Amino acid sequence: MKTKLTLVFLTVFTYFSLAQWQPTKGLYSGSAYSVIISNNEIITGTDGVIYKSSDNGVTWRRSSNGLPSVITYIRSLVKINNRIVAGTDAGVYYSTDNGDNWISSGLSNTVSVYDIAIKGSDLFIATNQNPVYKSTDDGSTWTALDFSSFPNPDIMTCLTVKGNDLYTAGYGGTVYKSTDNGVNWTQSYSGPPFYVILTMVTAGNDILFGTDGGGIFKTTNDGEIGYQRIVD
Question: Which residue in 51, 119, 218, 232 is a FRET match for 177, CA 20 to 30 A apart?
Fold first, then answer.
């Protein structure tokens, strides 16, 4: 019995030891908003600074050459065709050397980017203006999409892709859907106006979104009928 108890203890101890999280060294600039892995390096966006690690997060080095000091947040990072694109609160920047140097896309620094989505060969950004932009050249240039059919469109905070459809949402709790790559949009869902939709994700046949104060919602029918709350 004693031998069995010892084995159980060792098994449990080993499990919890492996399950524990450990802090990495570095990233002393505040919050981390986005992270990707590219060419065996971890690249993360923080409070106006981009850091890279080539040893699985043990050490970090600053990698923000080309990013202006006006940037306060780097909320989104994606990789497309060997190019890394960064969405900031002062426009969009891209890197062709795995994040060592950054180039402005020319998008106004008054455009604050909250999220980036890749759909096929195109990029989309959710912003505080217009409110969605599209790029067909890996983030070099951007075009504002037409939301003129909606009065006072919200600030968009998130995007997700499901099949051939593109979804975006944000302040005001409204979800918009495009079936033609952003040319036209329809209102897929409208929740209580005090709900801010913070994030969206496609999970199998479902679309889930998390709100500020309203819990988590999902749809199993592409939003045609509606969304149901699954977590308060």
Answer: 232
The residue among 231, 120, 223 whose CA lies nearest residue 175 is 223
User: Chain-wide mean pLDDT for the chain?
Assistant: 85
pLDDT of residue 83: 97
End-to-end CA distance of the chain: 46
> Rounded to whole angstroms, how far apart are CA atoms 76 and 92?
10
Structure pTM? 0.84
Three-state SS string over the chain comes to CHHHHHHHHHHHHHHHHHHCCCCCCCCCCCCCCEEEEECCEEEEECCCCEEEECCCCCCCEECCECCCCCCCCEEEEEEECCEEEEEEECEEEEECCCCCECEECCCCCCCCEEEEEEECCEEEEEECCCCEEEECCCCCCCEECCCCCCCCCCCEEEEEEECCEEEEEEHHHEEEEECCCCCCCEEEEECCCCCEEEEEEEECCEEEEEEECCCEEEECCCCCCCCEEEEC
- Among the listed ranges 86-95, 132-141, 180-189, which one has the minimum average pLDDT value? 180-189
Q: In which order are the strands placed within the sheet that holds 74-80?
A: 74-80, 83-88, 91-95, 103-104
Q: What is the pLDDT of residue 192?
A: 67
Whether the pLDDT of residue 124 is over 80: the answer is: yes
Give dist(CA 138, CA 145) in Å, integer: 17
The dihedrals phi and psi of 176, each to the nearest 5 degrees, come to -110, 150
Structure confidence at residue 22 (pLDDT) = 64
